[in-house]
């Protein structure tokens, strides 16, 4: 598309200067792009648009709530033009959130990681409508969502409206979790949205400028230049590392007298930072931070954030400590948004913390509502719940006794339906399911009790998926794929056997494929944990990080901008203007 | 310096990878830059710094208020290390304001036109201190300025302090002038600061998003998408043109159904837009805007801005008209800041609208206070005020009668002291001053009355300098030059004769050199009025505009960013994410 736009602009410029037209044609032909010099109302484009309009009446209404990783990946991959798609989100853009810590200090500009959702969906061959609003209520009975505009300016009163749906895709993400710690909302900065990152950037500069004023005492300087990061997860660690680089590479030169006063503290309630990573990475990170002078305090639980100090309870001593600070960044995990909470109450999911879906990302209890990304978790079905049904399915003749080989027919379905089975096999280093059954008994025949025994440990392998961009993006792609083949799979179901019912499931359940995870540690060093527990730490991983993050950008525009930002930082450093 | 930083970064990267060190040496030697690979504590740098510190006691204290065009250009050109310089400004950066209209719609990013003042003055060989604060009072008696921090966050109470000065340079700029029109401050956007431009950009997107909501009526859509620009000066005209381009080149594609509703109106109280330009430019601009569909209303005086409508009085009909709008941008001229007003009262300049300085930029009535840029005007001395003194100076023997040739000795001084003389000569197409005297009388002898008659029309040529970046920058350079040669010129004054006193003025008075002015009109067309009334309109001027604006950037970083922003816009268009 960028190529098309380039040609279009070029053509406009060249048309106004006819003498150069010849050159344009030569360039275009040699580049194989002559067809691209057509204006927007070309017959090809109009044909698609017309088809879209005429078919409006029969189209199924799909409403997508949210333009984050899950929603955008769903929209990007949705190809079936037989849907009428409406998007509702308070943000009219998609943000590449893994680069937010880089935005907090200007390694990357905020504009470089966002892409308007309209320009993402504009490339569709069918019409997609976007409404900048937040959904505040989901009415499952009438299949409606209630929305209102989030704008706060002089454009007039609050706009409210409803949107009807046939299918609802909830991809609203989560909010920062304060664990009800007093003062967090008032005094701490979160790091979830682009605006948060911009605000943090301004506040860091504010702290340095304020500490430069002649009326500020030495003690006060130390307080103002004490940056506290709460939460030792990947975001908190990356932010602390980036801030350290910013201070040492750029600010130290502009504020030479303040460098000695700067202190960065990372508070973690657990025993180690980066505890979801391999032990080697944790150790490396803790050692590097110690060398860099970043103060990592583990076993430190924040109890209160006041205007100028943060109170923690130290697990080792049981004492309450009060630490003066200049800025606090709160990055301890995510919580459920109020509207999702309300929705959960409405559909009877009252005793859960997060919205539960089945393995096909359908909200439990709602056939036509899907939830993906950080706002939901998959409630993986236990093998033990269905164990009798599975046994009966294999036991076609209802004998109560089965040879191990009799299971052959249903093995594939079992493995597909219950992903924990495969994880268990891998862990036990078993070649296949039959071995698991055989291992349990030398005897080749199983009854229901022995079958239960063989599978008894399988369910312990069940784990919730992490709340990462990677999971959300894969879920979006998966769901779009299901929507694309909805009609086909209705006729020819491709999923596993329904053990409790008849026939097969329409689709294969969602299966997450972990591609690895990065933890940038500053100083052009990154820790990478790749599939197969392959760990790489150092400068080479930083280059891997650069290439992966560049390749994962949503558009050529953001890719170009992000890469040129990196280059710009390398040559000119980061900007410290307070804007 | 950017070269130095590049090497420094490169050296850091290469040191950690010793195998590449050889390559670095080769590159550096071939580039002649080996010396650049030294760290910040190199002996050369330290020597300067030490010299600075030791000499602190005798140093004259210079306080600069403001980091706009005037202040920054003064600081950039100040080279004499015998001053102790302190800068006080609420903005810790310099902004390239002529590109603000481009920032309002993302042709150029806001970050690309700002440069931290600390990084500008860091290149000095002496210490310059910056304080992010606003000056709220000038105490001329005790030679002190009272300052306070402008930060509004949780960093603690209001910081107040005073700064002593020996020389004070007031370069605080001006504020937008509302002419006390009710509702302007509450409902209109100004376009003076970077934050204003960012806010306008967000509001334009807000208008489009709001108009896209299903609950908004057709009439309301028209109102929301009506953009009103008040003031037909270069800023207002450029903003209207840029907005038109943004809507037509970028937003029309993303909001195809809204394009027909968009309306841009330019209100001008005078008879024509761009009335400070050549008539040809005005006509071209008005015709181009008419073709583009930008509604130019001349003779339209805004009387009130309400929440959703703007009221104007039409000069032609005398009627009051009320126009519904979505966004108003107010760009009608500048007014004096309250702190400058207070200062004027204090020094007795009570019956003036703007702070007056003499031709050496010294505030009238204050020997050690200078004012430059938009906050002051030069109160050009009239020839007629000094006419007797001039005559006496030439009439060495006190005869009361002088031959024209007797003036030869003082001609240079007269022309230097009273710039209006040269303008008058040029206008009358006279070769030199003697001709002016000769013209007045065939007789070769003059008495005081005839001399007065000859010069009687000269003072009508006096004009205030326009409030432009060009004037401010030239004044800053001029004043820095004076400061650099203060001691030298004290001994060997280089200015014109003091007609009313004895001896000579220390410095030549400030003389503005007009280098031309641009008025970008959108669609890659710019009107340029160059010295000698040379007018150029069209695409070629646009390229001239690009090159001038690129070359005038304050640093290589901003130059690179601005140019790459232009390129990015050409290829990818402007971003419409609401951040």
TrEMBL record, chains A, B:
Its cofactor is FAD. Pfam families: NDH2_C (PF22366), Pyr_redox_2 (PF07992). Its main location: mitochondrion. It catalyses: a quinone + NADH + H(+) = a quinol + NAD(+); a ubiquinone + NADH + H(+) = a ubiquinol + NAD(+). Keywords: FAD, Flavoprotein, Membrane, Mitochondrion, Mitochondrion inner membrane, NAD, Oxidoreductase, Peroxisome, Transit peptide. It is a peripheral membrane protein. It is found in: Mitochondrion inner membrane; Peroxisome. It comes from the Eukaryota. Residues 382-417 form the EF-hand domain. Gene3D superfamilies: 3.50.50.100. Its EC number is 1.6.5.9. InterPro entries: EF-hand-dom_pair, EF_hand_dom, FAD/NAD-bd_sf, FAD/NAD-binding_dom, NDH-2, NDH2-like_C. Belongs to the NADH dehydrogenase family. This is NADH:ubiquinone reductase (non-electrogenic). It comes from Rehmannia glutinosa.
